[in-house]
């Protein structure tokens, strides 16, 4: 098979675009998909400082590499979650990536933050699934650090598979409030929130893996030992089966939802968040989800201490 762009030997074939690419042209194709997402959805400009959330996995490192190559002003933000060797490896890979490209990186070890709360401790003390505790911690630190350091926008490495699976989950339960908010660009709904964007929403997980490989990016291959929610994995599997028989299903499902479906759910003004009584960050109750989690942990810790 020949490369669709330059007619040399193709190394990768993308059925959903009916195109084959050699290494060099695949990288061009990938950058174009990301540029299209950024420009079409007005995510950010080359004049803005973008905070990129990097886990050390293929998606977020591919994202950081792409944004840097395309000439955007980027700073990495890495949270060291305290999940044993997995977190140590993730932090190592992220640091090395930043060093070799001379890019600024902010690393936050959660265990050393004000209340010493890393993911395992939180999960153990609250009986919440580790992934749900982890999600609350990540969202809180992303919001707070972007705000404290003065970044107008935060980018994450969510890809097409992530977004299509999330859409399927929301549709299966008809979670209309979630459907109204599912978009690759979330404008701030409060002055203490920054814009949140997902520039990889048009490229598949397979494509980010190919990109990382072609670009020689060294990333953490092992999955988080807590593993992502089982249902999310099942939705991805189902979508991949549909994609096999009908290439392009994932992109059409998501893109047409954004074009036609979402406006039907997004009617009316969303209820604006109020400042959290405890930390001042925006919250949808008296206290934000993060402070609720911290209080839960503190109560349990206190109880354990008294019984010790
Ligand atoms: P996940 O929720 O693990 O699928 O990750 C989704 C996105 O969140 C990644 O592509 C990253 O942009 C970001 N992210 C996940 N874990 C971390 C972390 N430990 N530090 C910084 N960003 C992260
Ligand atoms: Zn709070």
Description:
It is a single chain. This protein is an alpha/beta fold and 308 residues long. The protein is 51% helix and 12% strand. The protein is built from 11 helices and 10 strands. The chain has helices at 23-40, 58-69, 84-101, 119-126, 130-148, 160-172, 176-181, 205-214, 230-245, 249-265, 289-307, and strands at residues 12-14, 19-21, 49-53, 73-80, 105-109, 153-155, 185-186, 195-197, 274-275, 282-283. Strands 5-4-3-6-8-7 form a 6-stranded mixed β-sheet, with helices on both faces. Strand 3 (49-53), helix 2 and strand 4 (73-80) form a beta-alpha-beta unit. The longest helix is centred in the middle third of the chain and has 19 residues, at 130-148. The radius of gyration is 20 Å and the shape is globular. 34% of the residues are buried. The model has no long low-confidence stretch (mean pLDDT 92). Zinc ion binds next to helix 11.
Present the secondary structure layout.
Blueprint: E1 12-14, E2 19-21, H1 23-40, E3 49-53, H2 58-69, E4 73-80, H3 84-101, E5 105-109, H4 119-126, H5 130-148, E6 153-155, H6 160-172, H7 176-181, E7 185-186, E8 195-197, H8 205-214, H9 230-245, H10 249-265, E9 274-275, E10 282-283, H11 289-307
Parallel strand pairs: 3-4, 3-6, 4-5, 6-8
Antiparallel strand pairs: 1-2, 7-8, 9-10
Helix pairs in contact: 1-8, 2-8, 4-5, 4-11, 6-9, 6-10
Adenosine monophosphate is lined by residues 53-55, 59-60, 77-79, 81, 138, 156-158.
